[in-house]
Amino acid sequence: MANTVLHKADTRGNANHGWLQSRHTFSFANYYNPERMHFGVLRVLNDDIVAGGMGFSTHPHDNMEIISIPLEGDLEHKDSMGNITVIRNGDIQVMSAGTGIKHSEHNKNKNEQVKFLQIWIFPNKRNVTPRYDQITLKAADRKNKFQQILSPNADDEGVWIHQNAWFHLADFDKGTAQNYKLKAEGNGLYIFNLKGDLKVDGQTLHTRDGLGIWDTDTVSITAESNAEFLLMEVPMNG
In terms of pTM, does the model score above 0.90? Predict the structure, then answer.
């Protein structure tokens, strides 16, 4: 029998810094909830809105795989490896912090906000050489199907990280139903519903709800309205 944990959108941690509004699925910064430390190796899932012209000043990371998925607007990235890039809706960015990096992120536009997901995954190798990558995804590749956007394999679809994890995005029309088959034994699946209504193994998810499922090998997903969602398959033990 599968185990599940449901995180309703309005139960997430909430940080409002004026220039930054962030909802935290898991404990982060000033939000601490011992019941919500992580889901397997998925350590952080932040749903961020950055005001026009504002951003995160230069700060360090180490030994974490950091994934950014922009949902709206233009986010400018600068880092200690010399990368200066802009990520937009349709892109995915990944950093292996490894032995240590410093970076900053700013809203490139003064008159519109940026919305993005910031995700941290515990790596399966420590003190790797830091690296940066970003790619642009094709929206058509997730229409009524699962589009792989991240994997453990550098030569596979999407970006890659130092962990036995797979991410997929999906954009389902109402009534679309698919089964997701987990790729690795000992992995669980965390579904973050970006928009619309989903039924996942009988559990209804509304916009910004999250559901973790483990001890199963297949998960059934049906769109009860037009829906967009992110699937994160991750090891339940690092």
Answer: yes
